[in-house]
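User: Show me a protein chain along with its predicted structure.
Assistant: Here is one chain, sequence first, then structure tokens.
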Amino acid sequence: MSINDNFIEFDPIYPPKKPRPLRIFLVSLTVSSLLVALAFGGQAAYQALKPKVHWTMQKFMTQSLDWQPCDNGFSCTTYQVPIDYNNLNGGNFTLQVLVHPATGNKTKLGYLFVNPGGPGGSGVDYAYNADTIVSKVIEDNYDIVGIDPRGVNLSQPVRCLTDSQEDTYLDGGGSIQTSSDLTQSEQQAQMFADQCWNQVGPNLAHYSTLESAKDMDILRALLHQPTLNYIGKSYGTYLGTLYAALFPQNTGRMVLDGAVDPNISVNQQNEVQAQGFDTALRSFISSNPEFSVAQVQQLLATARKTPLPTKPANSSKTNKQNRTLTESLTITAIASALYDPSSGWPQLKSALDLAINHNDGTGLLAMADDYDQRLPNGHYASNQNDISQITTCLDFPDPRTIPQIQRNAADYAKTAPLFGPYLAYAGLACHYWRVSPVTTPPLTHLKSAPLLVIGTTRDPATPYAWAQALNKDLIDSTLITLNGDGHTGANRGSTCVDDAVNMYLLSGVTPAGNLYCAK
């Protein structure tokens, strides 16, 4: 991560499937050409391709879907949404959709929308992996539908930085300890904000989660669903919360897992998340006593002063790209492992041993690259790093000045000594943003159909306190608490959690009261 970024709040897919072939999504020559033109032609190409028809919300809600078979058993399509809901003739975005068909022979219960979070996670990839994110009984009874939100992955992806710029942005920085560090980070933040404006222009104002919630309701209507059934993980819970606030009458069965508190300030978000990662790392260390907090802190100090050498995969030779493990990449790698104890913790154990005992950063570098979606050839496989920052700047205003952030950073160092120094300045690029944050509807005392909110007690990315807060904001919600480690709670091996989720999605029946699952 760059010192300017939050850790992305998304639900990793475990076990990962083979990468989804991109070729399956060329639904038609017209659509694929549009995507290519927009990806590489910038604003000028977009202006030339503006739709000539007069659009109304009625037209958006009744447009035809051209379904095509894709990837041996899935169905794919695209649909149009307005770039600006206050100017319906200001141009459209084309959003990519994938449906994972129900696998059972019984009468289907309709469509179940899924979103992994981020912001910037691919709903298309998530639905493609439906057999790893929901129980078999849910897969049997629902068509699982995933949308790539506006600007994400296959939905006219937005990129601010080149690959080499992305390397510099993610590799550099580290904790801000001196005035020189702060100056460097401010320059990085300014560069990122300027690049996003240069690449995207005025449309930079229209990649908010609020607009994605409205986009989701258009697809609900196009699929002829009276209500929207939904599983949102991590930052996807914020998308679900906004949908419930905007369209309470259209909200069906909704599971919000790894909840985001929609009403806390940016400062509170960053500090509580830092505390969550601190707690998760200490839990890892308690299970792996060969390591200590002091060793991890010393490793970070070493990487800051002299980045660790690395080796290419399956070779003892020096890394051909001459890449080293910086402080920023080290904290990214450590954080990435804390999302999932079953796979992440063993990786972290091995990588820390290499780094601490052998001065070899190879394992940690591989983990950081995986988290950042950097391929061995140096290309970033998705635009998640860019769109995550863009959407965050639109979703959550931060009125603090730089001196105020500096004062808050001193508190972070006390309440979260490990991760606090790295998250204290998260979101710094938003202070140089060229467009204003969106205005959201009130997100307290929300009434809708009964919902489920799930929180894990030692969740690093979305701390448990956020689930408790969201449960209070959603009047008709039931809180399921999983006493455990890792990010999110459903389909992670807890029969207690999964039985409650399955019963709710199949019948609409929630637990009699808030539910505590010991494991």
